[in-house]
Amino acid sequence: MRRLAAGVVLAAAGLSAHMISMSTGDLRLKGDRAEYELRVPLYEIGHLKEPQKSLFENFRLLDGREGARLVKHLCETDSAQDAYLCRAEYQFPGPVKNLVVECTFAAVMVANHVHLLRAEREGASDQAVFDFSYTRVPLRFVPPGKAAKAFSQFWAGLARAAGGAAQWLFVLALAMAARRPRELYGLAAAFLAGEFASALYVAWGSWSPAPRFVEAAAALTVAYLAVEILMLPEAGHRWAVAGALGVFHGFYFGLFLREARMPPLPVLAGVGAAEAALIAGFAWILGRIERAAAALRPIRIGAGALLVVGMAWFFLRLRG
User: Fold this and answer.
1) H/E stretch holding 121
2) For the residues 205-232, what does the mean pLDDT come to?
3) Mean pLDDT over all residues of the chain?
4) Given this model, what pLDDT does residue 115 score?
5) Which CATH class is domain 22-144?
6) Which long-range contacts (CB under 8 A, 24 or more apart) does 118-125 make?
7) Which letter does DSSP use for residue 236 in this model?
8) Where are the domains of the chain?
9) Which of 14, 111, 243, 286 has the highest Cβ tally under 10 A?
10) What is the pTM of this model?
11) For the packed helices 181-204 and 238-260, what is the interaxial angle rounded to 10 degrees?
């Protein structure tokens, strides 16, 4: 059973990275030149000794195989927006025919970092989402068909839901909290309802939750769920805790929807599909472990590890 506890801790090791890790960029292409504006939250670059150098070493524009030359760039701190703002100009060898963007910000910030890029060219627009697995994307400025567009948005939600340690920790906590299959369905439904409601509220509203507050609150919710498993094994209304956990988790997807300017339905459908699959997978694994080693009470051991991780994550975010 040590493996179960160690697995919880190892799965949560990535929580030193921020749950909400996102930057945005706007690219305007004019003939053989391009203008690029980048906005990065200040907390994302605190560990970089030379953020301006590191960021532009990990962002490239190409026309086919020919790289554009970085003509000039300037970055400044905007304390009012708690952001690091950069502007740059690129020069291509000639008029751009096949624009390709390479972005590896996840390599210098955190592994679950997402960069949302919006691009314009002669009145046409395109967008791309970069993360640790998608670092090179061609921009064609040709509107995709409805089916292709809906699938790309569904996939974006699915990838965001399964792409970080925090997301895995939340659904693992739900699977551990369920005392029977029927209760698991209720917990999952409450979690998804809270998540989708808060995502829509943030996406359509003007309020932007502070990342440190969101993560600290989410960590406390995970820790409280672990306390219920350990100290209150017969407690009722556990679905309410699951719903609260979903609310804090949904803030991330709300910010993603707002910045990406994607319709919520296909994105949240992808989120729900990924999380449902993860919950079912964790429940199956935990069920097998319980049957194989019931005398060792593996759920209690896992809940103890979950409590330690939740509290450590909480204090880490308070200090951060």
Assistant:
1) strand 114-121
2) 83
3) 86
4) 94
5) mainly beta
6) 118/24, 118/25, 118/26, 118/27, 118/261, 119/26, 119/27, 119/28, 119/29, 120/26, 120/27, 120/28, 120/29, 121/28, 121/29, 121/30, 121/96, 122/29
7) S
8) 2-18+164-319, 22-144
9) 243
10) 0.79
11) 40
